[in-house]
């Protein structure tokens, strides 16, 4: 086979493969968008083609979300929970990851693996003991119960992630800062933390996304509509018996998903650097 033809076939095959995965990734957003703006008469007519608008689009589903439900409150609750959990995770995971990275014995590596393994424990095994703690603290049926329990799975993974990144930072940089008069903590704050900003940004995005999409703990600890995060509110208050408000459900999912998707795209380079930074020394 001539080389130009072989090259063209490789480029064509690669392009088709990329196009397939792009369509696969973008289709849920397209489906949410087209369902969120369809009229009910168009949405429930089985004779219509479901992949585009057969009738003029409408904002009725979005209006219903903000006027007839507590959707704005659910958004606010999710934002508060995400910000609080992210702050708690950063304050805990950054020094924990640094400490594990600077432990020279095998105990440090074993401890890091043990911490990561706690992240793998299914939430369905933990919500029973955690419910007892939530009850003892008087946080049942409150969004603050989620602020308490979510760090139990964000801190272990983020500590393990940051440990790998801090290991990639040359310790000589911190030693030079200590020679220049910094304390160990000062060298950590002035040298290690600024150099680890990609990993810290990764932790922020990962933690906030994880709290935004979590469902099991929210369903277990919260029943009042005004305390629900968006994942629980959309999936429970918009399903009544065997009636699914598909337009409103998809509109709520779209509104919640678009900001996260934009954040991932804006910080994609730093996010990848944070994920892979600990893999190369």
From TrEMBL:
<dbReference type="Pfam" id="PF00528">
    <property type="entry name" value="BPD_transp_1"/>
</dbReference>
<dbReference type="InterPro" id="IPR000515">
    <property type="entry name" value="MetI-like"/>
</dbReference>
<keyword id="KW-1003">Cell membrane</keyword>
<keyword id="KW-0472">Membrane</keyword>
<feature type="transmembrane region" description="Helical">
    <location>
        <begin position="110"/>
        <end position="130"/>
    </location>
</feature>
<keyword id="KW-0812">Transmembrane</keyword>
<feature type="transmembrane region" description="Helical">
    <location>
        <begin position="74"/>
        <end position="98"/>
    </location>
</feature>
<feature type="domain" description="ABC transmembrane type-1">
    <location>
        <begin position="75"/>
        <end position="267"/>
    </location>
</feature>
<dbReference type="InterPro" id="IPR050901">
    <property type="entry name" value="BP-dep_ABC_trans_perm"/>
</dbReference>
<feature type="transmembrane region" description="Helical">
    <location>
        <begin position="12"/>
        <end position="33"/>
    </location>
</feature>
<dbReference type="InterPro" id="IPR035906">
    <property type="entry name" value="MetI-like_sf"/>
</dbReference>
<feature type="transmembrane region" description="Helical">
    <location>
        <begin position="142"/>
        <end position="163"/>
    </location>
</feature>
<dbReference type="GO" id="GO:0055085">
    <property type="term" value="P:transmembrane transport"/>
</dbReference>
<protein>
    <submittedName>
        <fullName>Binding-protein-dependent transport systems inner membrane component</fullName>
    </submittedName>
</protein>
<keyword id="KW-0813">Transport</keyword>
<dbReference type="GO" id="GO:0005886">
    <property type="term" value="C:plasma membrane"/>
</dbReference>
<comment type="similarity">
    <text>Belongs to the binding-protein-dependent transport system permease family.</text>
</comment>
<feature type="transmembrane region" description="Helical">
    <location>
        <begin position="243"/>
        <end position="267"/>
    </location>
</feature>
<keyword id="KW-1133">Transmembrane helix</keyword>
């Amino acid at each position: 086979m001539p080389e130009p033809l072989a090259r063209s076939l490789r480029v064509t095959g690669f392009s088709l493969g990329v196009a397939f995965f792009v369509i696969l990734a973008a289709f849920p957003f397209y489906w949410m968008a087209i369902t969120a703006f369809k009229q009910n008469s168009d949405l429930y007519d089985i004779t219509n083609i479901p992949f585009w608008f057969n009738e003029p689009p409408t904002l009725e589903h979005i209006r219903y979300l903000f006027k007839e439900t507590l959707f704005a409150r659910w958004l606010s609750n999710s934002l508060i929970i995400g910000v609080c959990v992210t702050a708690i995770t950063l304050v805990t995971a950054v020094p924990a990851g640094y400490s594990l990275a600077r432990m020279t014995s095998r105990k440090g590596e074993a401890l890091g693996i043990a911490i990561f393994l706690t992240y793998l424990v299914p939430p369905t095994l933990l919500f029973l003991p955690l419910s007892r703690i939530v009850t003892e603290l008087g946080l049942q049926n409150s969004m603050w119960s989620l602020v308490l329990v979510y760090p139990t799975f964000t801190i272990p993974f983020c500590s393990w992630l940051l440990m790998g990144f801090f290991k990639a930072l040359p310790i000589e940089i911190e030693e030079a800062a200590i020679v220049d008069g910094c304390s160990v903590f000062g060298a950590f704050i002035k040298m290690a933390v600024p150099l680890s900003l990609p990993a810290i940004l990764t932790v922020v995005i990962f933690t906030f996304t994880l709290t935004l999409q979590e469902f099991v703990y929210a369903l277990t600890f919260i029943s009042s509509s005004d305390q629900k995060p968006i994942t629980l509110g959309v999936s429970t208050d918009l399903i009544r018996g065997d009636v699914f408000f598909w337009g409103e459900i998809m509109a709520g999912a779209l509104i919640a998903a678009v900001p996260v998707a934009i954040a991932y795209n804006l910080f994609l380079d730093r996010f990848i650097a944070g994920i892979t930074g600990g893999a190369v020394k």
